[in-house]
Amino acid sequence: MEMVQQGLEILRTWRTLEVIAITLIIYLPDALSLWFLVKAVGLTLGFSDTLVLLGAAGLSTIVPSGPGFLGTLQFAYALATEFAGGARVLGIAAATLAQLCLLLPLALIAAGILGHGSGTALYTILARRQSDDGRAGQ
């Protein structure tokens, strides 16, 4: 019990306010983007329903799924919108919109950075392999 008490002492320091501020900086835009996506498909969520959607979307990423969380994200959005009193189809539409507007651009940018950063090394490896294949064929 003493260790728990000692661990909770951090809540009485200024460091806690820093953590709260950084958390708000990170999660507020994320929550707003999800709220705007759901609003775009015709469902207005309250604050608590938006937090439920944010939590469900976050938890859906730990379930094994296909690329881009295809399927699990739709399921999480469908359950969260149904919880908020909307139709499941609105949740599925919002999840698909999130994947197309939020996740796909990030994946394309990451692939571009990866391709650009490793392009020279990849070209060198492929050129060396091609020259080795040419020598082996002679």
Please give the structural blueprint.
Elements: H1 2-7, H2 15-40, H3 47-60, H4 72-83, H5 88-137
Helix pairs in contact: 2-3, 2-5, 3-4, 4-5
Notes on the protein architecture:
This protein is mostly helical and 138 residues long. It is 78% helix and 0% strand. It has five helices and no strands. Helix 2 (15-40) crosses helix 3 (47-60), helix 2 (15-40) crosses helix 5 (88-137) and helix 4 (72-83) packs antiparallel against helix 5 (88-137). The chain is extended, with a radius of gyration of 23 Å. The protein starts with a helix and ends with a helix. 16% of the residues are buried.
Brief overview, please?
The protein has 138 residues and is an all-alpha fold.
What tags apply to this protein structure?
138 residues; mainly alpha; extended
